[in-house]
Amino acid sequence: MDLVNDHDFMPIFIDMFRELPCLWQVNHPEYKNQTKRKAALDNLLVIVKPVIPTADITYLKILIGGMRSTYLREHKKVQDSQRSGAADDIYVLRLWYYDRLHFLAGPTLPPPGPTPPPATPPTPEPQLGRKRVRKTRE
C-alpha cells in the first residue's frame, strides 16, 4: 500500500510527526539525542503498524526522508515561482499534503540565496615593524 497517497492516513501521520519536533527541528534540544529520537520513531510506528504490518524504524526513516525532501523540493519551486514575479509562470503544487508540512519550512531550511557581503569592507590591519624578506637558496 502506498501510504503517501492514502488521504485518510497521511493527515494523521503528519500531525503526529509535527508533535515530535525532535525528528524534524534541527535546533530542538533533543534533535541529536538518539534515544529520544528512537522513542519518537517508536511512537510513530504504533500508528503505522496497523496500516502496514511489516513497517519498521528503517521504513519510517525512509518515509519521513522522502516526505521531507518532496516537501522541500516543492517549497523551493513555490519560492522560485514567487520570486520570478511572472503572473503567467506561477507554480502549481503537485503535493496534496503540502500545506500540512509548512512546519518543515522553519529553521530546517538554509537561508535562501547567497549570503550578502558585509556592510563595510574589513579594514586591513596596519603592519608593525619591518617587513620580513625571505631569502632564497641558490
TrEMBL record:
Region (Disordered): 107-138
SMART domains: MADF
Bias kind Pro residues: ranges: 108-125
Organism this protein belongs to: Aquarana catesbeiana (American bullfrog)
Domain MADF: 12-109
Signal peptide: none
Protein name: MADF domain-containing protein
Biased composition (Basic residues): 129-138
Coiled-coil intervals: none
